[in-house]
Amino acid sequence: MSRALATSTPRQQHPLPAGLDPARLPSHVAVIMDGNGRWARRRGLPRVMGHREGVEALKRTLRLCSDWGVGALTAYAFSTENWNRPGEEVNFLMALFERVLEREIEGLEREQVRISFLGDLEPLPHRLQHLIADATVRTAGNGGIRFNVCTNYGGRAELVRAARRLAERAARGELDPASIDEGCFAAELHTAGQLDPDLLIRTSGEQRISNFLLWQLAYAELHITEVLWPDFNAEALLSALLDYQNRQRRFGGVDPAC
Ligand code: FPP
């Protein structure tokens, strides 16, 4: 398979492309990595080969975001609905996550990436859970880009979990229901303590949120591209970031120029 994230010699950094304003980069980019299956089918390959190539696109995107100064990248790797895929594909994905984690952990450490896995991790294979716990602990003190991998993640499940946790605290008498506000709700989400994504990129042209970060994407700018995820590269990321920098973000207010 492919090269690991870092080699023993320091890797070449990608310079910030001309035309991109470093002061107006999104702090947090989220991606729905769609189109792996179609990418494979168009080449007459099994669907899973698209997932394998999708890992390369994810590594590319992580490095580019890190080099260009994006503070956090959150990727939708496996949704709560993805268990409904054929067993063979689910097993391939779980084994792929394990292989990638094993292979990349040293590179992630060296490149100061702080990795977290968001979602209900308990139903995952034990070996994968162990690798996730190890990678999380080993990179927890890193000061580089935050890399969130949403695994067995569902936005609705996350909201229900937060509501249940608050209700439990209220039932124990630790929390006055009247004091529940957006801040304490957000603190019960998997993303507690992190900034919300400023930009959501979805590949392969689908115009859906698909149960991804339902709370956190409230004010995100959306960039939908026809590019299939395995083909997502520097040019595609640049085009998403330029699109973002052309938006007027009003957060429900008005444009002061109008
Ligand atoms: C959606 O494409 C993609 C996925 C469900 C899997 C994405 C996972 C990876 C790229 C691997 C990430 C690995 C790690 C360890 C972070 P699709 O299969 O729905 O494509 P289609 O819509 O063309 O069928």
Q: Bound compounds, please?
A: farnesyl diphosphate
> By CATH's scheme, which homologous superfamily of the domain at 22-27 and 38-154 and 222-243 applies?
Decaprenyl diphosphate synthase-like
Distance between the termini: 54 Å
The level 1 CATH classification of the domain at 22-27 and 38-154 and 222-243 is Alpha Beta
| Element string (H = helix, E = strand) | EHHEHEHEHHEEH
CATH topological fold name of the domain at 22-27 and 38-154 and 222-243: Undecaprenyl pyrophosphate synthetase
From the alpha carbons, calculate the radius of gyration and give it in angstroms. 19 Å
Main beta sheet strand tally, sense and closure: 6 strands, parallel
Describe it for me?
Helix 4 links the parallel strand 3 and strand 4. Helix 1 packs across helix 2. Helix content is 39%, strand content 13%. It is built from seven helices and six strands. The mean pLDDT is 95. The radius of gyration is 19 Å and the shape is globular. The chain starts with 27 loop residues before the first strand and ends in a 13-residue tail after the last helix. By secondary structure, the chain is an alpha/beta fold.
Structural key phrases:
258 residues, alpha/beta, six-stranded parallel β-sheet, 6 strands
Short recap of the structure:
With 258 residues, the protein is of the alpha/beta class. The chain contains seven helices and six strands.
Chain-wise SSE layout:
Elements lengths: L27 E5 L3 H7 L4 H22 L3 E8 L7 H24 L3 E5 L7 H14 L6 E8 L1 H17 L10 H5 L12 E4 L18 E4 L9 H12 L13
Parallel strand pairs: 1-2, 1-5, 2-4, 3-4, 5-6
Helix pairs in contact: 1-2, 2-3, 3-4
